[in-house]
Design brief:
The complex is a heterodimer of chains A (705) and B (554).
Chain A lengths: L31 H6 L1 H6 L3 H4 L3 H19 L3 H38 L4 E5 L11 E5 L8 E5 L8 E5 L1 E5 L1 H4 L5 E4 L6 E2 L4 E2 L3 E6 L7 H10 L7 H22 L1 H7 L6 H11 L2 H20 L2 E3 L2 H9 L2 E5 H5 E12 L5 H12 L5 H14 L13 E3 L7 E6 L2 E6 L1 H10 L6 H12 L3 E9 L2 E14 L3 H10 L3 E5 L4 H11 L3 E3 L4 H13 L4 E5 L5 H6 L2 E5 L4 H6 L2 E3 L6 H39 L17 H25 L8 H31 L7
Parallel strand pairs in A: 11-18, 11-20, 18-19, 20-21, 21-22
Antiparallel strand pairs in A: 1-2, 1-3, 3-9, 4-7, 4-9, 5-6, 5-8, 10-22, 12-17, 13-14, 14-15, 15-16, 16-17
Helix pairs in contact in A: 4-5, 4-10, 5-7, 5-10, 5-11, 5-24, 8-10, 10-23, 10-24, 11-23, 11-24, 12-23, 14-15, 23-24, 23-25, 24-25
Chain B lengths: L2 H32 L5 H10 L7 E2 H24 L15 H12 L9 H4 L2 H31 L5 E3 L1 H27 L8 E5 L5 E5 L3 H10 L20 H25 L3 H28 L4 H6 L11 H14 L14 H12 L10 H20 L5 E2 L2 E2 L2 H27 L1 H4 L6 H16 L14 H30 L16 H31 L2
Helix pairs in contact in B: 1-7, 1-9, 1-12, 2-7, 3-4, 3-6, 3-18, 4-18, 6-7, 6-14, 6-18, 7-8, 8-9, 9-10, 9-12, 10-12, 10-13, 10-19, 12-13, 13-17, 13-19, 14-15, 14-19, 15-17, 15-18, 17-18, 17-19
The chains are: A alpha+beta (705), B mainly alpha (554).
InterPro entries (chain A): ATPase_P-typ_cyto_dom_N (IPR023299), ATPase_P-typ_P_site (IPR018303), ATPase_P-typ_TM_dom_sf (IPR023298), ATPase_P-typ_transduc_dom_A_sf (IPR008250), ATPase_P-type_domA (IPR059000), HAD-like_sf (IPR036412), HAD_sf (IPR023214), P-type_ATPase_bsu_IA (IPR006391)
Pfam families (chain A): E1-E2_ATPase, Hydrolase
Keywords (chain A): ATP-binding, Cell membrane, Ion transport, Magnesium, Membrane, Metal-binding, Nucleotide-binding, Phosphoprotein, Potassium, Potassium transport, Translocase, Transmembrane, Transmembrane helix, Transport
Chain lengths: 705, 554
């Protein structure tokens, strides 16, 4: 079971979330209508000044221009068909980028609507504790760093900042898509507010922490629109390889002409241009930027904002995950897991007493006792009314016990020392058996709660409740998966080493850092990085900020402080620390998609050679017709089929580029084997079939036969 | 013993002998390149050259040293040949013409040993021994030195130093090449190769004609010609000449010698990077390609016979020596074209179209299976980087090879490397085919004539040095064009390899995890082989189609 089912992320992009899928990483489906709506953008991108940024497609465009001129000079059906399809190749490549950008634009529109022209109520002389500071009206865009503004119920917060006074419930649905309001208060780690969100109740004073135009919403819009997009290191490296392959093929074709003339088979510009376009890696060249944009987009759909594509790539490379215990690995509060009765008491009796004593206990621990009693022993939850004259003894810091007095029976539960003392004071005696149960629970990292009852004047211990931090379901499997991917998990906790070890063992993490201070965390990150490892972590507090900045992938929780959000290179709007694992998977999927399509693209060339070379030279050297293993109809139809296939495959693969290839966490070796079979062998075989099918159709076009 | 059995025995004995040498020689070279101790003779050499033997160089300084050393070598060799008539032991040979001098100087310094002249009628003994033979040693050593720097790029961390060129050069000559050459020269002499200081002897043949026979220090030059994957013969007929290669045993030994260093270097690599399995993976790729090529050429030479004479001879015997037969010739031809040696014991021009085409394709692979001394290993490591890059992306990580990340900078140098040689071959052949005068140099017409030109530029740019024969290359245009092709084909890749070494050495290595692409498994061997064949195949397919394929398929 995957964790996403526990807290399904809200998706402003409208993508349906698929719980419990074995391949968790997936993006939204491509709506065919998007292809049409993006067409104008794709045509606009034909501007050579834009095209030059993509060397592979620029070469195709130059080829298209040359064939156009040639077709005008020497018109023929063949020349015009090739010309049209070369132009289509370029347009299809642009289309993929335009579609990817188009999805972002839609999201940006939604965000822009929240950027209304808010009037801010600026406090000119606010100081902590000031009772009636002077107030003036200012446009939100005039707010500067360090300004203080007051916001009351019903008003929009004019800019990003930290709450410095008061507490309020805030509707952040504009950003997170989550309609439940959140509490924001001064001090602590819940102080950050975002411009564009709405205060629902109370009054807060906010210190502005962003410059105009650089607010969270501004950055978010820039990110989803792809305006701030820079090529990532991997993309640059791949581009270099593609450019050099392009040059090699360009040379191979340009120098082919003198060879061809010697062989008595001089080739036309149209055919040479077609050969170049067929050989250079147009499939990956055309889809490369769409893959990058879509990768960011997949994160946005999961409500994660990456400040740079570099961070997304780094996520794929992460070696070590630092996971906060609370909230990520465990539910974050201790729960009753077991009733351990002493001799002479049955478990059911103990459960009964424990349940009685916890009925009025509204703490999570208390509730969990009631739940366990119900689940394990079928004890129906009794309501206070049923118990007549029950008197509940609330927990206090002095007594460290709580309980109930009912029908002359007193039941107490609490810390071992407190309950033991109570028993002793009431004429009973806690024997060594109790002590050994208590010790056993403590040693396993749990918390013992001793339950005692006083009946007939004497108190005696009934047993011990084992409270423990409950590890979320499925974590062990998840960590096993990560281990197979070569990622080490380290649990960070403030617990003592004993407790930490018990939870670490249960959750199946590779290592843990107990009694962790921010300094320890920082030191751990630096130590890992010194060994050449990349580290990812999540954090929300101000004291996490240095570590978030140091980590290679630092995911700040949206509920966290602005210092944390500034320091990290990603922000999770859902504030779900578990998402780190998904972020890693998305990063990997992004790289795999690039690698797979590169392999596919290069493997395609083999079939194209077998189509085009015999078509070019079988007249001069009839023996070369043996290479025409696809038995294509005519030279013209063979070349045309190869070019049409080359163009269409880009469109066919747009959904794959946007969605990313299927990714299942496993070792590098098995991933590679699978991808080589699918994209390497597939890339080798598919075009033979595709070109043949196209040839069977177009051979009927007059002028191509 | 029939030919087939003899052929199989030769191949098995060769593979067995190379397997036996793999570990000891590879380890010895690794030790030579990593040891902290200097021999006395080496220390003397460093003092003489004013070199601090314990100071490592940055990649740029290492590169400058390689280039300076090679430039001085070219100039020295050029002057030597131009002034030969004034020197000792010239055995009456006149000064060599400027065109041939430039071409030959470039050829021997680049480890190509393309010869546009015939040795016995052009070069005196002094030029052969202290000019050409010296280059046979040092040009081979330069290749190993460069790959040593690249391997150090993988093994070192966070440093800008990749070793000391002068130390590497000296040690490889003193500790590896000289001892091996000494021992095997004696074996060659024992096998019948000549070794003397005779001039030109005139003898009367049985039918009463006169024939001039040049003696000379042949065996000593022959051994380093093969060992250093040089290939420049003492005689024009090269290893087909009975004084160089008298019998089937010396033929087998020469094949062994030209393969032995290049096939042991993967061990050196594995040893230096601390994981011998990495070396096994590389040698496996080399072995697969070599074996496939031997099979294809041998089968084609044996069976694609069209003439009556061929059937009588039992195969494509034209241009092959009777004493080596089809098997011994095919084995030699494949090994020499796959190692950048370029020595020949038969005329590749007379091979079957597919067999001859294979010798071209072998060179087009970039001399990497196993390739030249040093250059073969760095060539295949660059292709391994390309393979790791694509495959690494497919496993979802920034690709890394031996713990070093392959980012933009690394890919830039690797891409430039794989771009260089095809560019030189294709542009060179394209120019030659576009110029009517140069085209006239072909002996044959049609596709076969084109193969001759393609072969010449492929051989020069890949620093092989063998010739298809048939093409008249002793013209100013070919001497200059092929000379430049050799120089660019040798030194541009070295620039990129050393720059890459520097860039790798600077990195902090990434620890290997389950998420790291393993580069020692059969999976990687298959992947690398496929990448090599596809990248090379795609680059040269059109050219090959118009040459060997057009001829072979008709």
């Amino acid at each position: 079971m995957s964790l996403t089912t526990l807290e399904p992320p809200a998706s402003p992009g409208g993508a349906p979330t698929e719980p419990q899928q074995p391949h968790r990483v997936s993006g939204g489906m491509l709506d065919p209508k998007q292809l049409l709506t993006s067409l104008p953008d794709a045509v606009k991108k034909l501007d050579p000044r834009v095209m030059i940024k993509n060397p592979v497609m620029f070469v195709v465009e130059v080829g298209a221009v040359l064939t156009t001129l040639s077709a005008i000079k020497d018109p023929s059906v063949f020349a015009w068909v090739i010309t049209v399809w070369l132009w289509l190749t370029v347009v299809f490549a642009n289309l993929s980028e335009a579609v990817a950008e188009g999805r972002g634009k839609a999201q940006a529109e939604t965000l822009r609507r929240t950027k209304t022209h808010t009037v801010a109520r600026r406090l000119t002389d606010w100081r902590p504790g000031a009772t009636s500071p002077r107030e003036e009206e200012a446009a939100a865009s005039d707010l500067r760093l360090g300004d203080h503004v007051v916001v009351e119920a019903g008003q929009i917060i004019p800019g990003d900042g930290d709450v410095v006074e008061g507490v309020a419930s805030v509707d952040e649905s504009a950003i997170t898509g989550e309609s439940a309001p959140v509490i924001r208060e001064s001090g602590g780690d819940r102080s950050a507010v975002t411009g564009g969100t709405k205060v629902l109740s109370d009054r807060i004073v906010v210190r502005i922490t962003s410059k105009p135009g650089e607010t969270f919403i501004d950055r978010m819009i820039a990110l989803v629109e792809g305006a701030a997009r820079q090529k990532t290191p991997n993309e640059i490296a791949l581009n270099i390889l593609l450019a050099s392959l392009t040059i090699v093929f360009l040379l191979a074709v340009v120098t082919l002409q003198p060879f061809a003339i010697y062989a008595g088979a001089e080739q036309s510009i149209v055919i040479l241009a077609a050969l170049v376009v067929a050989l250079i890696p147009t499939t990956i060249g055309g889809l490369l930027s769409a893959i990058g944009i879509a990768g960011m987009d997949r994160l946005v759909q999961r409500n994660v904002l990456a400040m740079s594509g570099r961070a997304v790539e780094a996520a794929g490379d992460v070696n070590t995950l630092l996971l906060d215990k609370t909230g990520t690995i465990t539910f974050g509060n201790r729960q009753a897991s077991e009733f351990l009765p002493v001799k002479g008491t049955t478990a059911a009796e103990l459960a009964n007493a424990a349940q009685l004593s916890s009925l009025a206990d509204e703490t999570p621990e208390g509730r969990s006792v009631v739940v366990l009693a119900k689940e394990r022993y079928g004890l129906r939850e009794r309501h206070e009314g049923e118990l007549g004259h029950a008197e509940f003894v609330p927990f206090t810091a002095q007594t460290r016990m709580s309980g109930v007095d009912v029908d002359g029976r007193q039941v107490r539960k609490g810390a071992a020392s407190a309950v033991t003392a109570w028993v002793a004071a009431n004429g009973g005696r806690a024997d060594e058996e109790v002590q050994s149960l208590v010790d056993r629970i403590s040693q396993s990292g749990g918390t013992p709660l001793v339950v005692a009852a006083k009946e007939d004047g004497t108190a005696r211990v009934l047993g011990v409740i084992h409270l423990k931090d409950v590890v979320k379901h499925g974590m062990r499997e998840r960590f096993d998966e990560l281990r197979r991917m070569g990622i080490r998990t380290v649990m960070i906790t403030g617990d003592n080493p004993l407790t930490a070890k018990a939870i670490a063992d249960e959750a199946g993490v590779d290592d843990f850092l107990a009694e962790a201070t921010p300094e320890d965390k920082m030191a751990l990150i630096k130590r890992e990085q010194a060994g050449g490892k990349l580290v990812a972590m999540t954090g929300d507090g101000t004291n996490d900020a240095p570590a978030l900045a140091q980590a290679d992938v630092g995911v700040a929780m949206n509920t966290g402080t602005s210092a944390a959000k500034e320091a990290g290179n990603m922000v999770d709007l859902d504030s779900d620390p578990t998402k780190l694992i998904e972020i890693v998977e998305i990063g990997k999927q992004l790289l795999i998609t690039r690698g797979a399509l590169t392999t596919f693209s290069i493997a395609n060339d083999v079939a194209k050679y077998f189509a085009i070379i015999p078509a070019m030279f079988a007249i001069a050297y009839p023996g070369l017709d043996k290479l025409n293993i696809m038995q294509l109809h005519s030279p013209a139809s063979a070349i045309t089929s190869a070019i049409i296939f080359n163009a269409l495959i880009i469109v066919v693969l747009i959904p794959l580029a946007l969605r990313g290839v299927r990714y299942r966490p496993s070792s590098a070796s098995s991933l590679l084997t699978r991808n080589i079979w699918v994209y390497g062998l597939g890339g080798l075989v598919l075009p033979f079939a595709g070109i043949k099918v196209i040839d069977l159709i177009i051979q009927f076009i007059p002028g191509l036969s | 013993m029939n030919d087939t059995l003899a052929g199989w025995l030769q191949i098995l004995a060769l593979v067995g002998a190379l397997a036996l040498t793999y570990r000891p020689l590879g380890d010895h070279i690794a030790h030579t390149l990593t040891s902290a101790k200097h021999l006395r003779v080496e220390r003397f050499a460093y003092r003489l050259g004013g070199v601090d033997g314990d100071a490592d160089q940055k990649w740029s300084v290492y590169l400058r040293s390689v280039l300076a050393f090679s430039a001085v070598s070219v100039l020295f060799l050029y002057a030597f040949m131009r002034l030969q008539s004034h020197l000792l032991l010239s055995i009456g040979m006149p000064a060599v013409t400027p065109g041939v001098s430039f071409n030959t100087a470039a050829s021997f310094v680049t480890n190509t040993n393309w010869q546009s002249y015939s040795g016995e009628s052009t070069m005196g003994h002094l030029v052969q021994m202290s000019g050409l033979a010296v280059q046979n040693f040092v040009s081979a050593a330069v290749g190993i030195a460069v790959v040593a720097a690249l391997i150090r790029g993988f093994t070192r961390r966070k440093t800008d130093r990749v070793g000391n060129f002068w130390v590497d050069l000296t040690r490889i000559v003193v500790r590896v090449l000289l001892p091996l050459a000494f021992v095997f020269a004696i074996v060659l002499v024992a096998g019948g190769a000549v070794q003397n200081f005779h001039g030109v002897d005139s003898i009367s043949t049985l039918i009463g004609d006169h024939q001039s026979l040049t003696g000379g220090p042949v065996a000593s030059q022959e051994v380093i010609k093969e060992l250093g994957t040089n290939g420049g013969g003492f005689y024009n007929a090269n290893s087909a000449h009975p004084f160089e290669n008298p019998n089937a045993f010396t033929n087998w030994l020469e094949i062994y010698l030209l393969l032995v260093i290049a096939t042991s270097l993967p061990r050196t690599f594995g040893r230096m990077v601390g994981d011998n399995r990495q070396g096994y993976a590389i040698i496996a790729v080399m072995g697969v390609i070599w074996a496939a090529s031997v099979a294809i050429v041998t089968v084609n030479e044996l069976h694609s016979v069209s003439s009556q004479a061929g059937h009588v001879a039992g195969g494509m015997m034209e241009g092959k020596e009777q004493r080596f037969g089809i098997w011994g010739s095919a084995l030699f031809a494949v090994s020499t074209t796959l190692t950048s040696t370029g020595a020949v014991n038969s005329f590749h021009d007379s091979y079957s179209p597919i067999g001859g085409g294979m010798t071209i394709f072998n060179m087009m692979l970039g001399e990497i299976a196993p390739g030249g001394t040093g250059s073969g290993l760095y060539g295949i490591l660059i292709l391994a980087i390309i393979a790791v890059f694509v495959a690494g992306l497919m496993v979802g990580r920034t690709p890394e090879y031996l713990g070093k990340k392959l980012g933009g900078r690394e890919m830039k140098f690797a891409s430039l490397y794989i771009l260089t040689t095809p560019a030189i071959v294709l542009v060179g052949a394209g120019l030659a085919m576009a110029l009517p005068g140069e085209r006239a140099g072909m002996l044959n017409t049609g596709a076969h004539g084109f193969s001759e030109v393609l072969y010449a530029f492929t051989s020069a740019a890949n620093n092989n040095g063998s010739a298809f024969a048939g093409l008249t290359v002793n013209t100013d245009w070919y001497n200059t064009a092929l000379g430049l092709a050799m120089l660019f084909g040798r030194f541009l890749p070295i620039v990129f390899v050393l720059a890459l070494a520097g860039s790798l050495a600077r990195q902090q290595p990434v620890p290997a995890t389950a998420g790291t692409l393993p580069t020692h498994r059969p999976q990687f061997v298959g992947l690398l082989t496929a990448v090599i064949l596809i990248v090379v195949g795609l680059t040269y397919f059109p050219a090959l189609a118009l040459g060997p394929l057009a001829e072979g398929l008709s």
